[in-house]
Amino acid sequence: MTNSKIIYTKTDEAPALATQSLLPIIKVFTHAADIDIELSDISLSGRVIASFPSYLTEQQRVDDALAKLGELVLKPDTNIIKLPNISASVPQLKATIKELQQKGYNLPEYPEDPQNDEQKKIKAQ
Prior knowledge:
Elements: E1 4-10, H1 13-32, E2 35-41, H2 44-51, H3 65-72, E3 80-81, H4 90-102, H5 117-124
């Protein structure tokens, strides 16, 4: 028998706190039913990292989990637990980029007012 799987999304802020308390409980119940739990990172930092693979080392690159989930939801056997999250503001995006840069990620600055094609491309990503 093949194991069933539930994909649980990892998010930022308040939903992340809910994950810390709820996910262990879900794992206990699903383990008894032989259902695997797969964590999928759709946090702001995860999405920023996934958007700029050409700027990063091979070890730093991650898949675009949100795009992958978008494909999986079209399959009838997909089960996803997604906690609510909101779109990030520009200040949150800039703070996330700065924090990731401080951790060694060679990410470009977010151009609020792009002046050239490269900056326009970065903003679009």
